[in-house]
C-alpha cells in the first residue's frame, strides 16, 4: 500500500516531474542557466498554453475539442486581416467573437445534435480551416499596425510581457473559478456524472456548451496573440497546437473520461513541454528525435497513471476502470 | 365488420410500415450515397463515367485502407486509432529504405510488419494496461513517425524496383491495381468481421467488455488483434502509396487518421463500439471521395473545399443519427 505521503506525491507528480526536468536541464545544459531561458520558455508556451486552459475545461466537462488548432488560425487571420479594414481593437473583438461562435456551434452539435464530440469537432476543424483559407485566399496576411503587435512581446512587469501575463492570468482565473465557485464545481459534476448532475438540477447542456464556448474563446485569444506577435495571420497556424495541447493537459493528469482535472497541473504540463523542447533545441537535437522524446514522455506518463489506478483498484478489490471509455456524450 | 377489418388490418399495415421505416433508418447512408451520385450526374456530365468513377476510387483507395483498419478498432470499443500517420508513412519508408538491403518483396513484408508492430504496441497499452486509446495512439504516432525518420536520417526515400512500380501503377483490364486491392481488402475484412469467430469477439468486446470477459471472450487479445489489423491495413495503404508515387516521406499519411475516422462515422458506424460493418465504412469512404470529386467538377475554389466538406460531414452524421433514432423509436 502507498502511504499518505506517497499518495500526496503521486497526486502532485506533475510538479515533481517538472522540477526534475528543470533541474536536469540546468545541470546538463550550460546554456539553460540564464534568466533569458526562463522567459523564452514562458513566451514559447504562451499561445498553446492559452489554448490548453480552454481544453482543460472542455475535458473536465467530459468532451474533447479537436477544432482548437483551426480556431487559432482563423482568429489570427481575422485579427490581422481586419486591422486595416476596421481597426486593431474591433478586429481583435471580431476574432474573439468568431472563436466563441465556433465554440457555440461545437456545443450545439454535441448537446442538441447528439454527435460525439470527437466527430463534431473534427468536422468543424475541417470546415473552419476551409473558412480560414477562403478568407485569407490561402496566403498569410500581414498586419498594418506592427507597433501594436510588438507591444505583445514587450516587457511590462520586468521581463514579463503581456503575452505571458495573459497566459498566467488565464490560468489563475480559470483555476479560481473551477475550484472555488459553484459554476466551476458544477463543471466537474457535469463531466463526472452527467445524469446525476442533471437530476441534481444542474443545466448540464448549458455547461457543456459553455465549456466549448470557453475553449473557442481561449483558442481565439491564443491565435490573436500569436498573430500579433508575428504581425502575420497565417492560415496554417496552429497546425501542431492540438497535439501539444492534448499532451500538456493529459501529462497534467486531467482524465479524458471527464470529471477530474486541474488548470494548475495543465500549466505544469505546458511548462514541462516548453522546458523539454527548449532544452532539446539548445542541444541541437533533430526534429524527429524530439518527436520520439515527446511521444515517449506522453506514453511514460500514461503508463504511470494506469499502473497507479490499477493498483488503487486492486486495493479496493475491483476491476481496473476502463480509462479508455469513449469521449463524448453518454 | 368494418370494425373487425380495421382491427385485423391496422396491425398488419403498421408492421409493414414500421419495418419499412426501420429499414430506411438502417440503410439511410446507402440512400445518401445514391442521392449524391444522382446529384453528381445532374451537376456534371463528366461525373457518371467509368473513368471518373475509377479516378474517385483511386483517389480514396489509400484512405480506404486506413478506414477498413479503423473499423476493427472502433467496433472493438477502442474508439480511434490516431497512429495511422505513423503506420502509413512508417511502412512506406521502411519498405523502400530496406529495398537495397533485403530486396523489394522482403522490403514490402518488413513495411507491413512495421504497421503490425506499431498496432501491437497500441494494443498492449490499450488492451492490457487499459490506457485511453486517444492518448496512447497520439503517443505512438509521435514515436513511430520520429523513429521512421531516424531510420532514414530525415531524408525522403525512393523506389528502385520496377516490380514495386508495376505493382503500384499497373492495372487489370483498366481497373487500377490499387482499386482492386482495396476491394479485395474490404472483402477479406468483411468476411473476417461477419463470418469468423474472431469477428464475433470484436463485436462482443465492443458491445460489453465486462460481460464478454465473463463469458470467456479473450477481450484483451481481441483488442490487440484489432489494433494489429488496423496497423496492417494502414501499412498496406502506405506501402501501396509508396509503390504508386515511387517515394516515401514522413508527411505521406498526414491527416489520414482524421479522414479515416470521418469515413467510419459518415458510414454510420457507432463510435461507441459493438456495432458497425465494413460495407458502411466503404460507403463512408466513397461519399468522401464523391464529395471531393464533385467539388472539383463543379469548380468549388480549392480554398473553400474543406469548408464544404466539414459541413457535409456534419449533415451526413446528423441525418444518420436522426433517421436511426426514428427507426428505433
Approximate shape of chain B: globular
Tell me the fraction of residues in β-strands of chain A, as a range: under 5%
In the sheet with the most strands of chain B, the strands line up as 1-4
- The structural class of chain A is mainly alpha
Which blocks of ≥5 consecutive residues of chain B have pLDDT under 50? 1-10
List the helices and strands and how they pair.
The complex is a heterodimer of chains A (330) and B (329).
Chain A: H1 4-11, H2 13-28, H3 35-60, H4 68-86, H5 88-111, H6 117-136, E1 141-142, H7 146-151, H8 162-180, H9 182-192, H10 194-199, H11 204-230, E2 232-233, H12 241-251, H13 263-282, H14 287-316
Antiparallel strand pairs in A: 1-2
Chain B: H1 2-26, H2 28-43, H3 50-78, H4 84-102, H5 104-128, H6 133-151, E1 157-158, H7 162-169, E2 171-172, E3 175-176, H8 177-195, H9 197-207, H10 209-214, H11 219-245, E4 247-248, H12 256-266, H13 278-297, H14 305-328
How would you portray this structure in words?
The complex is a heterodimer of chains A (330) and B (329). Chain A has 330 residues and is mainly alpha-helical. Chain A is built from 14 helices and two strands, in the order H-H-H-H-H-H-E-H-H-H-H-H-E-H-H-H. Chain A has a two-stranded antiparallel sheet with strand order 1-2. Chain A starts with a helix and ends in a 14-residue tail after the last helix. Chain B is mainly α and 329 residues long. Helices cover 79% and strands 2% of the residues of chain B. Chain B contains 14 helices and four strands. Chain B has helices at residues 2-26, 28-43, 50-78, 84-102, 104-128, 133-151, 162-169, 177-195, 197-207, 209-214, 219-245, 256-266, 278-297, 305-328; strands spanning 157-158, 171-172, 175-176, 247-248. In chain B, the strands form two sheets. Chain B has a two-stranded antiparallel sheet with strand order 1-4. In chain B, strand 2 and strand 3 (175-176) form a beta hairpin. The radius of gyration of chain B is 22 Å and the shape is globular. Chains A and B meet through helix 6, helix 12 and helix 14 of A and helix 6, helix 12 and helix 14 of B.
Amino acid at each position: 500500500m502507498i502511504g499518505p505521503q506517497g499518495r500526496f506525491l503521486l497526486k502532485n507528480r506533475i510538479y515533481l516531474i517538472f522540477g526534475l526536468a528543470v533541474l536536469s536541464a540546468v545541470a546538463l545544459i550550460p546554456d539553460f542557466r540564464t534568466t533569458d531561458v526562463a522567459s523564452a520558455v514562458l513566451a514559447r508556451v504562451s499561445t498553446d498554453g492559452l489554448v490548453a486552459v480552454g481544453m482543460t475545461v472542455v475535458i473536465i466537462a467530459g468532451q474533447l475539442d479537436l477544432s482548437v488548432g483551426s480556431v487559432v488560425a482563423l482568429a489570427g487571420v481575422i485579427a490581422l486581416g481586419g486591422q486595416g479594414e476596421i481597426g486593431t481593437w474591433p478586429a481583435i473583438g471580431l476574432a474573439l467573437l468568431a472563436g466563441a461562435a465556433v465554440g457555440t456551434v461545437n456545443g450545439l452539435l454535441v448537446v442538441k445534435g447528439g454527435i460525439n464530440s470527437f466527430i463534431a469537432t473534427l468536422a468543424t476543424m475541417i470546415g473552419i480551416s476551409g473558412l480560414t483559407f477562403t478568407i485569407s485566399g490561402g496566403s498569410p496576411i500581414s498586419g498594418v499596425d506592427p507597433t501594436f503587435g510588438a507591444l505583445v512581446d514587450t516587457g511590462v512587469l520586468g521581463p514579463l510581457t503581456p503575452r505571458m501575463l495573459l497566459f498566467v492570468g488565464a490560468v489563475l482565473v480559470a483555476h479560481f473559478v473551477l475550484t472555488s465557485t459553484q459554476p466551476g464545481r458544477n463543471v466537474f459534476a457535469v463531466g463526472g456524472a452527467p445524469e446525476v448532475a442533471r437530476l441534481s438540477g444542474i443545466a448540464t447542456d448549458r455547461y457543456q456548451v459553455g465549456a466549448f464556448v470557453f475553449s473557442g474563446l481561449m483558442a481565439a485569444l491564443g491565435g490573436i496573440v500569436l498573430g500579433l506577435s508575428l504581425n502575420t495571420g497565417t492560415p496554417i497556424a496552429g497546425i501542431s497546437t492540438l497535439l501539444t495541447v492534448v499532451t500538456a493537459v493529459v501529462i497534467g493528469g486531467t482524465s479524458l473520461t471527464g470529471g477530474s482535472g486541474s488548470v494548475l497541473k495543465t500549466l505544469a504540463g505546458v511548462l514541462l513541454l516548453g522546458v523539454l523542447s527548449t532544452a532539446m533545441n539548445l542541444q541541437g537535437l533533430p526534429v524527429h528525435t524530439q518527436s520520439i522524446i515527446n511521444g515517449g514522455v506522453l506514453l511514460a506518463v500514461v503508463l504511470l497513471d494506469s499502473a497507479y489506478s490499477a493498483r488503487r483498484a486492486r486495493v479496493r478489490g475491483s476491476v481496473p476502470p476502463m480509462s479508455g471509455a469513449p469521449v463524448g456524450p453518454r | 365488420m368494418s370494425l373487425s377489418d380495421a382491427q385485423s388490418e391496422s396491425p398488419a399495415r403498421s408492421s409493414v410500415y414500421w419495418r419499412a421505416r426501420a429499414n430506411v433508418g438502417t440503410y439511410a447512408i446507402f440512400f445518401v450515397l445514391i442521392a449524391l451520385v444522382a446529384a453528381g450526374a445532374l451537376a456534371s456530365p463528366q461525373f457518371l463515367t467509368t473513368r471518373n468513377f475509377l479516378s474517385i476510387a483511386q483517389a480514396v483507395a489509400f484512405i480506404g485502407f486506413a478506414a477498413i483498419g479503423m473499423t476493427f478498432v472502433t467496433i472493438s470499443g477502442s474508439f480511434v486509432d490516431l497512429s495511422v500517420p505513423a503506420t502509413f508513412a512508417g511502412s512506406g519508408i521502411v519498405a523502400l529504405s530496406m529495398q537495397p538491403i533485403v530486396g523489394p518483396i522482403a522490403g514490402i513484408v518488413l513495411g507491413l510488419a512495421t504497421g503490425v508492430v506499431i498496432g501491437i504496441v497500441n494494443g498492449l497499452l490499450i488492451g492490457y494496461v487499459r490506457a485511453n486509446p486517444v492518448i496512447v495512439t497520439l503517443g505512438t504516432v509521435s514515436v513511430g513517425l520520429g523513429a521512421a525518420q531516424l531510420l532514414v536520417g530525415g531524408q525522403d526515400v525512393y523506389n528502385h524496383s520496377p516490380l514495386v512500380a508495376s505493382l503500384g501503377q499497373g492495372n487489370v483490364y483498366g481497373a487500377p491495381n490499387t482499386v482492386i486491392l482495396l476491394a479485395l481488402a474490404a472483402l477479406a475484412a468483411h468476411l473476417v468481421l461477419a463470418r469468423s469467430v474472431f469477428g464475433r469477439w470484436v463485436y462482443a468486446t465492443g458491445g460489453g467488455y465486462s460481460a464478454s470477459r465473463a463469458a470467456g471472450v479473450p477481450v484483451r487479445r481481441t483488442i490487440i488483434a484489432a489494433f494489429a489489423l488496423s496497423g496492417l491495413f494502414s501499412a498496406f495503404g502506405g506501402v501501396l502509396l509508396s509503390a504508386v508515387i515511387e517515394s516515401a516521406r514522413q508527411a505521406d499519411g498526414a491527416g489520414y487518421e482524421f479522414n479515416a475516422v470521418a469515413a467510419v462515422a459518415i458510414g454510420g458506424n457507432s463510435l461507441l463500439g459493438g456495432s458497425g460493418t465494413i460495407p458502411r465504412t466503404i460507403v463512408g469512404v466513397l461519399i468522401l471521395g464523391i464529395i471531393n470529386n464533385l467539388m472539383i467538377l463543379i469548380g468549388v475554389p480549392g480554398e473553400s473545399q474543406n469548408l464544404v466538406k466539414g459541413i457535409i460531414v456534419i449533415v451526413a452524421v446528423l441525418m444518420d443519427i436522426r433517421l436511426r433514432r426514428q427507426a428505433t423509436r
